[in-house]
Amino acid sequence: MATTNPPSASAPARDRKAEHIQLALDRRMQTGGAFDRFRLMHCALPEIDLAEVDMSTRFLDKTLSAPLLISCMTGGTDEAEAINRNLAIAAERVGVALGLGSQRKAIEDPATRESFQVRDVAPNVALLGNLGAVQFNYGYGLAECREAVEMIGADALVLHLNPLQEAIQPEGDGNFSGLLERIGATVDELEVPVVVKEIGMGISGAVAEALHGVGVRVIDTAGAGGTSWARIEAARADDLEIGELFADWGVPTAVSIRAAAAFDDVTVIGSGGVRNGMDMAKAIALGADVVGLAYPFLRAATESPDAVETQLRRMLRELQICMFCTGARTVADLQQVELLEEGTS
Questions:
Q1: Contact 282, 257 (CB under 8 A)
Q2: DSSP 7
Q3: Exposed, middle or buried: residue 14 (CB in 10 Å: 0-12, 13-18, 19+)?
Q4: What pLDDT digit, counting tens, does each position of 309-323 carry?
Q5: Both ends of the chain: CA-CA distance in Å?
Q6: Percent of the chain, pLDDT > 90?
Q7: Any idea what the Cα angle at residue 305 is, between residues 302 and 307, rounded to 5°?
Q8: Whole-number Å distance between alpha carbons of 67 and 284
């Protein structure tokens, strides 16, 4: 599904969330190739039974059937409500984690809250709420964080960082000053874990170190190599030139995963350009504990929970094969598998 006429920045009664869904489905908004330069070391003698491969892992005090998080996508519209429920039903069936899109709209317009509320169809899922960290500079505080968590019965709260998106977005919020201290205070005071994630431009080593210093213990890399939010927001602003200039901006996912994995007490969610089970395996071998994917499920989520479930099970089958053919019986074993990298000897 491709868009033909990007929404105009001056369009009346525009709905940013609806536009984001429409544009994210456009393949032209993808960059790709986040893991192309890596190859998993094949093991011709794995010495394990394929049936013994155990993909289960612990995340947010829950056991997942596999180290997979359906990453934060959307909310706040009728279409988003259907998408979130389809994702949640499939996540419950398969036993993986689920993140929801930014709940800012639901806090400011309670009529949209239902589009985020999926606990009735996903009672056992590890569920992540979501707010933009920049909103701390626009009137938000601990009360809004608690409201976001309580609204959906979340097991953790994502605070997302998106300076490039906000800089290009027609209605963007550009004041990112003093956020580190506010994030640290939220970690200290909120009753559930705080996850800090980028939205497609990656977490650098310096930022990972700063976040670790204020107590953040779950980092979602969301590195460069997947959906280009620069392109999406530039399309909305009718400024395709700036979108292309910044389309590949950011810290590559592999670099970001390795930077966050340098801290033994940090749970790393490796995301950004993960498109299949082999990419998942590579992300884990790079140091991720859990792998986040969004784009591969978006189209299926516009159809049905069955379509999402089919896509999930295919990816987990691909991951299982990768584990078997590298001799990794467990996720911990896969983290020790050697990666061959093009351009290195």
A1: no
A2: P
A3: middle
A4: 999 999 999 999 999
A5: 41
A6: 80
A7: 75
A8: 9
pLDDT of residue 26 exceeding 80, the answer is: no
- Give the Cα separation of 214 and 268 in Å (integer): 16
Rounded to whole angstroms, how far apart are CA atoms 235 and 146? 34
Residues in contact with 51: Cβ distance below 8 Å, sequence separation at least 6, in sequence order:
none
Q: Which amino acid is at 173?
A: D
Are 269 and 292 within 8 A, CB to CB? yes
Domains present along the chain, CATH in parentheses: 48-341 (3.20.20.70)
Positive or negative CA dihedral for 134, 82, 269, 254?
negative
Give me the pLDDT at residue 344, please: 56
Distances (CA, A) of 193 to 126, 136, 150, 155, 215: 12, 17, 13, 7, 10
CA distance 35 to 26: 21
- Which residue matches tokens 């790709």? 32
Q: Quick: pLDDT tens for 117-161.
A: 999 999 999 999 999 999 999 999 999 999 999 999 999 999 999
The pair phi, psi for residue 73, each rounded to 5°, is: -125, -60
Report the C-alpha gap between 269 and 130 in whole angstroms.
Answer: 15
The Cα 17–Cα 116 span in angstroms is 13
What tokens were used for 70? Answer: 């359906």
How far is residue 221's CA from residue 272's CA, in Å, rounded to a whole number? 7
Of the candidates 35, 17, 98, the residue with the CA atom closest to the CA atom of residue 64: 98
Q: Any alpha helices (H) in the chain, and if so which ranges? A: 16-24, 78-94, 104-108, 142-152, 163-168, 179-189, 205-213, 229-236, 240-245, 253-260, 277-286, 295-301, 305-324, 331-334
* DSSP per-residue codes, 136-185: GGGT--HHHHHHHHHHHT-SEEEEEE-HHHHHHSTT-----TTHHHHHHH
Tokens of 240: 């395709």
